[in-house]
Amino acid sequence: MNSELLTSFSDAANQTFKLLLDLDVITDTVQSPENNDKKEYIENIDIVIQITGDLNGEIMYSFPKDMTLEMVKIMSGMEFKEIDEFVKSALGEIANIISGSALSSLSQAQLICDIRPPKVSEGQTFPVSEGCSLYGAKVKTSIGDVGLNLRTIQSAG
Amino acid sequence: MLWKEKYMVGVPQIDQQHEELFSRVTAFVETLRSDKPWEQKLEKVSETLEFMKGYVVTHFADEEAYQAAIGYPHYQEHQKIHQKMVAYVVAVSDEYEKEGFKEELMQQFGGKLIAWLINHVLADDQKIAEYARSKGAN
Predict the structure, then answer these.
(1) What mean pLDDT is predicted for residues B30-41?
(2) What are the coiled-coil residue ranges (chain B) (predicted)?
(3) How near does any CA of chain B get to the CA of A138, in Å?
(4) Of A14, A26, A54, B7, which cross-links A140 as Cys (Cβ 3.0–4.6 Å)?
């Protein structure tokens, strides 16, 4: 079930990249949690969005630094050399758009959820505590690969 | 320049206002991103922010009137999206004045604004135009 949930997010990312940035997703692959090597994401900008409702947990998007700068350039037509507040905020909104779109498709499967405002950080860890499940996927585009990690909290009882 | 041909929805009144809005947002972002010290950008940033606050409300109202006129079935849903954005713009503007015109807040506002605006025009507004075309209206 969780891999199906994650597919909703990777599909939404695919559509959003195509619509906003004219980027085609080359592949998206679901990975087992053991294959998520955190070292790979050190230079990434991570965006965590909390999910509440029928599904409780968090979705984390890991965008490579260079890809992030290119994405903001495509949208604004301006050059960006560093990850600053403008860039982080634009990226946070894109993650917000992707998550909203994913939740909209999940609502058609009778899963009603809401999201909290995005939290942006650089090189964040994504711990998995007891009672949680972690599923990962990678969305590959011509300007970089985006890591998606979905952590769901099992409800008691 | 933020504006692209692909953002046109095919409804002349909406497209004209979108171009104006994108032009103003471009001026705002260019000022925001220029190399000048923040103190020298303050006046222009405040000026464009004030204009956008007014223009966003006018444009959203005109767009909603158009939706009502063609009987757009997702009118209320679209209106809620507009209301949420207006509330965000007003809240940021209030905080900006209250906190002493800090650059960080305006940079955050600019980043979110461009991503939101592009997505809103391409995803939400295109649906109005598709409906209008299906009904033979424009």
Answers:
(1) 93
(2) none
(3) 22
(4) A26
Strand (E) positions, chain A?
A: 25-31, 44-53, 57-64, 113-115, 119-122, 132-141, 144-153
- Distance, CA of A32 to CA of A135 (rounded, Å): 6
CATH of A2-153, one of 3.40.50.410, 3.40.1550.10, 3.40.50.1820, 3.20.20.120: 3.40.1550.10
> What's the helix, strand, coil split of chain A in %, to 5?
40, 35, 25
* Residue pLDDT, tens place only, A48-94: 999 999 989 999 999 999 999 999 999 999 999 999 999 999 999 99
Residues A2-8: what's their mean pLDDT? Answer: 82
From chain A, the residues in CB contact with B104 under 8 A are: 85
Q: Do residue A93 and residue B112 have CB atoms under 8 angstroms apart?
A: yes
Q: Which residues of B touch A76 (CB under 8 A)?
A: 2, 29, 114
Token pair, residue B42, equals 């303050």
Whether B18 is covered by a domain: the verdict is yes
Measure A94 CA to nearest chain B CA, in Å: 6
Dihedral angle computed from the Cα positions of residues A119, A125, A126 and A131, in that order, rounded to the nearest 10 degrees: -130
Q: Is residue B6 part of a domain?
A: no
Q: Give the pLDDT of residue A157.
A: 41
Band of pLDDT at residue B52, cut at 50, 70 and 90: confident
State whether B111 and A88 contact (CB < 8 Å). yes
Closest CA relative to residue A91, chosen from A101, A76, A106: A76
